[in-house]
Amino acid sequence: MLSSLGIVLPAYNEEARLGPALDELFAYLCSAPSGDLPERVSVLVVDDGSTDGTAALVRARPEFAADGSAPSRRDCPWLRLLTLPHGGKGSAVRAGMLAAEGDALVFADADMATPPDQLVRLVRALETADVALGSRIQPDGSDMRVTQPRFRRLVGRLFRFAAQLWATGSVKDTQCGFKGFRRAAARDLFSRLRITSIAFDVDLIYLARRRGYRIAIVPVVWADRRGSRMHPRPKLALRVGWDLVRIRFIHRRVPKAAADEPATESAATAGSAKRTSKR
Known about the structure:
There is one protein chain. By secondary structure, this protein is α/β, with parallel strands linked by helices. It has two domains: 1-112, Spore Coat Polysaccharide Biosynthesis Protein SpsA, Chain A (Alpha-Beta Complex); 113-279, no CATH class. It has helices spanning 15-31, 54-59, 89-99, 119-125, 150-168, 183-192, 200-211, 234-250; strands at residues 4-11, 40-48, 78-84, 104-108, 131-135, 178-182, 214-219, 264-267. The chain has an eight-stranded mixed beta sheet with strand order 3-2-1-4-6-5-7-8, with helices on both faces. The radius of gyration is 18 Å and the shape is globular.
């Protein structure tokens, strides 16, 4: 039984969007039905070298626990802040997942593109899996990414094809920013993570499969939020392409799972997540 949950939110210059996102997150955490989530919940915002008021916004929140205390979820979920030099989303997520506390650890996008009520889906999947990957592709084959601009969808298809062919196998949605891990798996995988570009998700999935962890694919609600920091550029495309190529080489010495303990990839049994987000 998972008794505690740590939620990691990487944030870079998110002053405008982080406040409403934290309002939504803590409103859900304080009202979630008993038994939906572990009894203790903490939220760690990782400030990735922001130049705006992101860090100040977090410190001003009533949930902020400067002394690091961790009250019961029934009293109040708690909020911490980790500040880093700017290193990119992958670097921020890695640092946050290694610093977060909980039997289950989840990272999510700071804009709450996947609403907080979807946390229960990952937590339930982690009762029997080591890694739970949020997926915007639904059991009926529909894809919530159709709300993205057309150019981003095209780039995403090309990226997905290359990632599946080279590193992630049958995992179709590598880039959903909503993933959960049991603590031991998180410590192992994130300590080995080497890619810090937007390809870091592919690196994680490749490592999880190589290490033989039980992987659950969890359909989740998702909505495209305007204001994304990801803007396709030739230089970025070259870096991501190079990162994809080198994933297998940089991890060639990572121990593989035993032959009788292959990585498993299964759909979570929670059913379709298709519905309209309230935000």
